[in-house]
Specification:
The protein is an alpha/beta fold and 338 residues long. It has one domain (5-24, 31-332): 3-Layer(aba) Sandwich (UDP-N-acetylmuramoyl-L-alanine:D-glutamate ligase), CATH 3.40.1190. It contains ten helices and 13 strands. The chain has helices spanning 41-52, 68-80, 145-148, 158-168, 185-189, 203-210, 222-234, 277-290, 295-309, 322-332; strands at 5-9, 12-19, 31-39, 58-65, 82-90, 96-103, 109-114, 135-141, 172-177, 198-202, 240-245, 248-253, 258-262. The strands form two sheets. It has a nine-stranded mixed beta sheet with strand order 5-4-1-8-9-10-11-12-13. It has a four-stranded mixed beta sheet with strand order 3-2-6-7. A hairpin with a 2-residue loop joins strand 11 and strand 12 (248-253). Helix 1 (41-52) packs across helix 8 (277-290) and helix 8 (277-290) packs antiparallel against helix 9. The longest helix has 15 residues, at 295-309. The chain is globular and about 50 Å long.
Protein backbone atom coordinates (compact mmCIF):
# COMPACT_ATOMS: atom_id res chain seq x y z
CA UNK A 1 0.00 0.00 0.00
CA UNK A 2 1.14 3.55 -0.72
CA UNK A 3 2.19 5.71 2.21
CA UNK A 4 3.73 9.12 2.69
CA UNK A 5 3.97 12.53 1.09
CA UNK A 6 6.11 13.71 -1.81
CA UNK A 7 6.08 17.52 -1.85
CA UNK A 8 7.30 19.45 -4.89
CA UNK A 9 7.61 23.03 -6.07
CA UNK A 10 9.06 26.12 -4.40
CA UNK A 11 12.04 25.66 -2.07
CA UNK A 12 12.88 28.96 -0.41
CA UNK A 13 14.97 30.36 2.41
CA UNK A 14 12.94 33.00 4.28
CA UNK A 15 14.62 35.96 5.94
CA UNK A 16 11.90 37.07 8.35
CA UNK A 17 12.33 40.58 9.71
CA UNK A 18 10.01 41.93 12.39
CA UNK A 19 9.59 45.71 11.94
CA UNK A 20 8.00 48.37 14.08
CA UNK A 21 5.73 49.77 11.34
CA UNK A 22 5.26 49.69 7.58
CA UNK A 23 7.00 52.77 6.14
CA UNK A 24 5.83 55.15 3.45
CA UNK A 25 7.73 55.18 0.15
CA UNK A 26 11.30 56.44 0.82
CA UNK A 27 10.64 56.16 4.56
CA UNK A 28 12.39 54.11 7.24
CA UNK A 29 11.28 51.21 9.42
CA UNK A 30 13.22 49.72 12.32
CA UNK A 31 14.07 46.02 12.22
CA UNK A 32 13.37 44.65 15.69
CA UNK A 33 14.29 41.01 15.05
CA UNK A 34 15.65 38.85 12.23
CA UNK A 35 15.07 35.12 11.84
CA UNK A 36 16.04 32.75 9.03
CA UNK A 37 13.72 29.85 8.25
CA UNK A 38 12.11 27.59 5.70
CA UNK A 39 9.85 28.95 2.98
CA UNK A 40 7.83 27.74 0.00
CA UNK A 41 4.95 25.29 -0.08
CA UNK A 42 6.76 21.93 -0.17
CA UNK A 43 9.49 22.91 2.27
CA UNK A 44 6.97 24.36 4.73
CA UNK A 45 4.50 21.50 4.45
CA UNK A 46 7.18 18.85 4.89
CA UNK A 47 8.66 20.57 7.94
CA UNK A 48 5.16 21.01 9.36
CA UNK A 49 4.49 17.30 8.82
CA UNK A 50 7.70 16.47 10.67
CA UNK A 51 6.73 18.72 13.58
CA UNK A 52 3.19 17.32 13.62
CA UNK A 53 4.94 13.93 13.86
CA UNK A 54 3.48 12.36 10.77
CA UNK A 55 3.87 8.57 11.03
CA UNK A 56 4.86 8.01 7.38
CA UNK A 57 7.71 8.83 4.96
CA UNK A 58 8.33 12.41 3.83
CA UNK A 59 10.18 13.35 0.65
CA UNK A 60 10.89 16.51 -1.32
CA UNK A 61 11.30 17.32 -5.01
CA UNK A 62 12.57 20.54 -6.53
CA UNK A 63 15.61 22.64 -7.40
CA UNK A 64 18.08 24.50 -5.20
CA UNK A 65 21.26 26.33 -6.08
CA UNK A 66 24.82 25.15 -5.50
CA UNK A 67 25.23 27.55 -2.60
CA UNK A 68 25.06 27.93 1.15
CA UNK A 69 21.26 28.27 1.20
CA UNK A 70 20.86 25.09 -0.86
CA UNK A 71 23.15 23.19 1.49
CA UNK A 72 21.29 24.59 4.49
CA UNK A 73 18.00 23.29 3.10
CA UNK A 74 19.47 19.81 2.63
CA UNK A 75 20.92 19.77 6.14
CA UNK A 76 17.64 20.94 7.64
CA UNK A 77 15.70 18.24 5.77
CA UNK A 78 18.15 15.58 6.95
CA UNK A 79 17.65 16.73 10.55
CA UNK A 80 13.87 16.44 10.10
CA UNK A 81 13.96 13.01 8.44
CA UNK A 82 12.91 14.35 5.01
CA UNK A 83 14.25 12.42 2.01
CA UNK A 84 15.94 14.79 -0.49
CA UNK A 85 16.82 12.22 -3.16
CA UNK A 86 14.62 14.09 -5.64
CA UNK A 87 15.73 17.56 -4.55
CA UNK A 88 18.17 18.46 -7.31
CA UNK A 89 20.93 21.07 -7.47
CA UNK A 90 21.46 23.49 -10.36
CA UNK A 91 24.46 25.72 -11.08
CA UNK A 92 22.36 27.90 -13.36
CA UNK A 93 20.68 29.85 -10.55
CA UNK A 94 20.93 30.54 -6.84
CA UNK A 95 18.59 29.09 -4.24
CA UNK A 96 15.37 31.07 -4.05
CA UNK A 97 14.93 33.41 -1.10
CA UNK A 98 12.31 35.76 0.30
CA UNK A 99 12.59 38.77 2.58
CA UNK A 100 9.47 38.66 4.77
CA UNK A 101 8.64 41.92 6.53
CA UNK A 102 6.30 41.36 9.49
CA UNK A 103 4.82 44.34 11.34
CA UNK A 104 5.13 43.68 15.05
CA UNK A 105 1.77 45.00 16.25
CA UNK A 106 -0.43 43.55 13.49
CA UNK A 107 1.33 40.39 12.32
CA UNK A 108 0.74 41.52 8.72
CA UNK A 109 3.53 40.52 6.38
CA UNK A 110 4.89 41.62 3.01
CA UNK A 111 7.10 39.49 0.77
CA UNK A 112 10.07 40.46 -1.42
CA UNK A 113 10.85 37.35 -3.44
CA UNK A 114 13.70 36.11 -5.67
CA UNK A 115 12.41 33.22 -7.81
CA UNK A 116 15.91 32.01 -8.77
CA UNK A 117 16.22 28.20 -9.06
CA UNK A 118 12.50 27.59 -8.64
CA UNK A 119 11.86 29.31 -11.98
CA UNK A 120 13.78 26.50 -13.73
CA UNK A 121 11.80 23.59 -12.27
CA UNK A 122 10.11 21.79 -15.17
CA UNK A 123 8.53 18.47 -16.15
CA UNK A 124 11.96 16.92 -16.78
CA UNK A 125 12.70 17.12 -13.06
CA UNK A 126 9.70 14.96 -12.17
CA UNK A 127 10.24 11.21 -12.30
CA UNK A 128 7.71 9.10 -10.42
CA UNK A 129 9.49 5.80 -11.07
CA UNK A 130 9.78 3.98 -7.76
CA UNK A 131 7.77 6.58 -5.85
CA UNK A 132 5.62 4.86 -3.21
CA UNK A 133 4.13 7.98 -1.62
CA UNK A 134 0.36 8.20 -1.34
CA UNK A 135 0.14 11.94 -2.05
CA UNK A 136 1.94 14.43 -4.28
CA UNK A 137 1.67 18.02 -3.05
CA UNK A 138 2.56 20.72 -5.60
CA UNK A 139 2.97 24.35 -4.56
CA UNK A 140 2.93 27.09 -5.48
CA UNK A 141 1.36 27.28 -8.91
CA UNK A 142 1.66 30.81 -10.37
CA UNK A 143 5.15 31.06 -8.81
CA UNK A 144 6.87 28.33 -10.86
CA UNK A 145 7.75 29.94 -14.17
CA UNK A 146 8.54 26.84 -16.23
CA UNK A 147 5.63 24.78 -14.89
CA UNK A 148 3.26 27.74 -15.26
CA UNK A 149 4.22 28.25 -18.91
CA UNK A 150 2.13 26.73 -21.68
CA UNK A 151 3.35 23.55 -23.34
CA UNK A 152 3.64 24.19 -27.10
CA UNK A 153 2.09 20.77 -27.79
CA UNK A 154 -1.29 21.40 -26.14
CA UNK A 155 -1.09 25.03 -24.95
CA UNK A 156 -1.87 23.91 -21.37
CA UNK A 157 0.34 24.80 -18.39
CA UNK A 158 3.16 22.28 -18.07
CA UNK A 159 2.04 21.61 -14.50
CA UNK A 160 -0.98 19.77 -15.89
CA UNK A 161 1.22 17.11 -17.49
CA UNK A 162 3.15 16.71 -14.22
CA UNK A 163 -0.03 16.22 -12.20
CA UNK A 164 -1.43 13.84 -14.82
CA UNK A 165 1.78 11.78 -14.70
CA UNK A 166 1.57 11.63 -10.91
CA UNK A 167 -2.00 10.37 -11.03
CA UNK A 168 -1.06 7.82 -13.70
CA UNK A 169 1.69 6.60 -11.38
CA UNK A 170 -0.90 6.00 -8.64
CA UNK A 171 -0.52 9.13 -6.51
CA UNK A 172 -3.25 11.41 -5.24
CA UNK A 173 -2.57 15.05 -6.06
CA UNK A 174 -2.87 18.17 -3.90
CA UNK A 175 -2.34 21.67 -5.28
CA UNK A 176 -1.77 25.08 -3.76
CA UNK A 177 -1.44 28.40 -5.60
CA UNK A 178 0.07 31.73 -4.66
CA UNK A 179 -2.02 34.90 -4.50
CA UNK A 180 -0.58 36.37 -7.69
CA UNK A 181 -2.00 38.78 -10.25
CA UNK A 182 -5.62 37.89 -10.97
CA UNK A 183 -5.36 37.73 -14.75
CA UNK A 184 -3.27 34.55 -14.55
CA UNK A 185 -5.61 32.34 -12.52
CA UNK A 186 -7.95 31.48 -15.39
CA UNK A 187 -5.10 30.73 -17.83
CA UNK A 188 -2.66 28.97 -15.48
CA UNK A 189 -4.61 27.42 -12.58
CA UNK A 190 -8.01 26.54 -14.03
CA UNK A 191 -6.69 24.20 -16.78
CA UNK A 192 -4.89 21.96 -14.26
CA UNK A 193 -7.83 21.44 -11.87
CA UNK A 194 -9.12 18.24 -13.57
CA UNK A 195 -5.81 16.61 -12.50
CA UNK A 196 -6.14 17.76 -8.88
CA UNK A 197 -7.67 15.57 -6.16
CA UNK A 198 -7.40 18.19 -3.41
CA UNK A 199 -7.24 21.95 -3.93
CA UNK A 200 -6.25 24.47 -1.26
CA UNK A 201 -7.30 28.05 -2.01
CA UNK A 202 -7.48 31.08 0.22
CA UNK A 203 -10.39 33.47 -0.12
CA UNK A 204 -8.62 35.70 -2.67
CA UNK A 205 -7.56 32.76 -4.82
CA UNK A 206 -11.05 31.25 -4.70
CA UNK A 207 -12.50 34.57 -5.87
CA UNK A 208 -10.07 34.73 -8.79
CA UNK A 209 -10.80 31.14 -9.85
CA UNK A 210 -14.58 31.41 -9.61
CA UNK A 211 -15.28 35.09 -10.26
CA UNK A 212 -17.34 35.27 -7.07
CA UNK A 213 -17.11 37.78 -4.23
CA UNK A 214 -16.82 36.12 -0.80
CA UNK A 215 -16.63 39.08 1.56
CA UNK A 216 -14.20 39.55 4.43
CA UNK A 217 -14.42 39.52 8.21
CA UNK A 218 -17.92 40.40 9.49
CA UNK A 219 -19.03 40.70 5.84
CA UNK A 220 -18.02 37.11 5.01
CA UNK A 221 -20.75 35.69 2.78
CA UNK A 222 -21.10 32.07 3.87
CA UNK A 223 -23.51 31.02 1.11
CA UNK A 224 -21.10 32.53 -1.44
CA UNK A 225 -18.18 30.62 0.11
CA UNK A 226 -20.08 27.34 -0.18
CA UNK A 227 -21.07 28.18 -3.73
CA UNK A 228 -17.44 28.95 -4.60
CA UNK A 229 -16.23 25.68 -3.09
CA UNK A 230 -18.77 23.76 -5.17
CA UNK A 231 -17.80 25.79 -8.24
CA UNK A 232 -14.19 24.65 -7.83
CA UNK A 233 -15.44 21.06 -8.00
CA UNK A 234 -17.36 21.94 -11.15
CA UNK A 235 -14.11 23.28 -12.62
CA UNK A 236 -12.65 19.80 -12.23
CA UNK A 237 -11.28 19.25 -8.71
CA UNK A 238 -11.71 15.55 -8.17
CA UNK A 239 -12.28 15.07 -4.41
CA UNK A 240 -12.13 18.11 -2.11
CA UNK A 241 -11.98 21.88 -2.62
CA UNK A 242 -10.92 23.62 0.58
CA UNK A 243 -11.21 27.39 0.96
CA UNK A 244 -9.48 28.94 3.96
CA UNK A 245 -9.55 32.47 5.35
CA UNK A 246 -8.69 34.19 8.65
CA UNK A 247 -12.04 33.24 10.19
CA UNK A 248 -11.76 29.52 9.37
CA UNK A 249 -12.30 27.17 6.46
CA UNK A 250 -14.98 25.59 4.28
CA UNK A 251 -14.60 22.41 2.24
CA UNK A 252 -16.82 20.89 -0.41
CA UNK A 253 -16.49 17.30 -1.63
CA UNK A 254 -17.63 15.54 -4.74
CA UNK A 255 -19.84 13.33 -2.56
CA UNK A 256 -21.95 16.42 -1.86
CA UNK A 257 -20.68 17.13 1.65
CA UNK A 258 -19.88 20.67 2.82
CA UNK A 259 -17.91 21.12 6.05
CA UNK A 260 -17.19 24.32 7.98
CA UNK A 261 -14.53 24.86 10.65
CA UNK A 262 -13.95 28.15 12.50
CA UNK A 263 -10.43 29.31 13.33
CA UNK A 264 -8.83 29.12 16.76
CA UNK A 265 -9.20 32.22 18.96
CA UNK A 266 -5.48 32.88 19.36
CA UNK A 267 -4.88 35.76 21.80
CA UNK A 268 -3.39 38.69 19.87
CA UNK A 269 -0.55 38.94 22.37
CA UNK A 270 0.64 35.48 21.33
CA UNK A 271 0.76 36.21 17.59
CA UNK A 272 4.31 36.75 16.35
CA UNK A 273 3.58 36.55 12.61
CA UNK A 274 1.35 34.85 10.07
CA UNK A 275 3.97 33.69 7.55
CA UNK A 276 3.37 30.02 6.73
CA UNK A 277 -0.06 29.78 8.34
CA UNK A 278 -1.71 28.65 5.11
CA UNK A 279 0.88 25.93 4.62
CA UNK A 280 0.45 24.78 8.22
CA UNK A 281 -3.28 24.56 7.58
CA UNK A 282 -2.63 22.45 4.46
CA UNK A 283 -0.27 20.17 6.37
CA UNK A 284 -2.81 19.55 9.12
CA UNK A 285 -5.53 18.74 6.59
CA UNK A 286 -3.30 16.46 4.51
CA UNK A 287 -2.08 14.57 7.56
CA UNK A 288 -5.65 13.58 8.45
CA UNK A 289 -6.72 12.88 4.87
CA UNK A 290 -3.66 10.68 4.34
CA UNK A 291 -5.04 8.49 7.12
CA UNK A 292 -8.45 8.47 5.35
CA UNK A 293 -10.19 10.08 8.29
CA UNK A 294 -13.22 12.41 7.99
CA UNK A 295 -12.92 15.79 6.32
CA UNK A 296 -14.20 17.51 9.47
CA UNK A 297 -11.22 16.14 11.40
CA UNK A 298 -8.90 17.35 8.65
CA UNK A 299 -10.17 20.92 8.89
CA UNK A 300 -9.98 20.84 12.69
CA UNK A 301 -6.31 19.84 12.71
CA UNK A 302 -5.69 22.29 9.87
CA UNK A 303 -6.88 25.34 11.80
CA UNK A 304 -5.12 24.14 14.97
CA UNK A 305 -1.81 23.67 13.15
CA UNK A 306 -2.23 27.10 11.57
CA UNK A 307 -2.89 28.61 14.98
CA UNK A 308 0.32 27.22 16.46
CA UNK A 309 2.29 28.52 13.47
CA UNK A 310 1.34 32.07 14.49
CA UNK A 311 3.39 31.82 17.69
CA UNK A 312 6.74 32.41 15.90
CA UNK A 313 7.73 34.78 13.07
CA UNK A 314 9.03 31.94 10.87
CA UNK A 315 6.83 29.46 9.06
CA UNK A 316 7.28 26.26 11.07
CA UNK A 317 9.29 26.88 14.24
CA UNK A 318 6.30 26.86 16.60
CA UNK A 319 4.29 24.01 15.04
CA UNK A 320 3.33 21.47 17.74
CA UNK A 321 2.76 17.71 17.50
CA UNK A 322 -0.74 17.00 16.20
CA UNK A 323 -2.19 16.04 19.59
CA UNK A 324 -0.72 19.16 21.22
CA UNK A 325 -1.95 21.38 18.38
CA UNK A 326 -5.48 20.05 18.84
CA UNK A 327 -5.18 20.65 22.60
CA UNK A 328 -4.00 24.22 21.91
CA UNK A 329 -7.10 24.82 19.82
CA UNK A 330 -9.38 23.30 22.43
CA UNK A 331 -7.80 25.36 25.21
CA UNK A 332 -8.26 28.68 23.42
CA UNK A 333 -11.58 27.84 21.78
CA UNK A 334 -12.85 28.54 18.29
CA UNK A 335 -14.47 31.54 16.71
CA UNK A 336 -18.11 31.28 15.73
CA UNK A 337 -19.51 32.22 12.34
CA UNK A 338 -22.16 34.94 12.40
Amino acid sequence: MRSGLLAAGNWIIDHVKTIDAWPAQDGLANILAHETGNGGGPYNVLKDFAKLRAPFPLAGLGLVGDDADGRAIRADCAACGIDTTRLQTTRDATTSHTDVMTVRDTGRRTFFHARAANALLGPAHFDFTGVTSRWLYLGYLLLLDTLDAADPADHAPRARAVLRAARSAGLLTALDCVSAASDRFRTTATPVLPEVDLLFANDYEAEQLTGMSLGRGPALDRPAVEQAARALLTLGVRRHAIIHFPEGACAASTDGAVVWQPAVKVPPALIAGSAGAGDAFAAGCLLVLHEEKPLAEALRLGVCAAATSLLHPTCSQSILPASDALAFGQAHGFHSFA
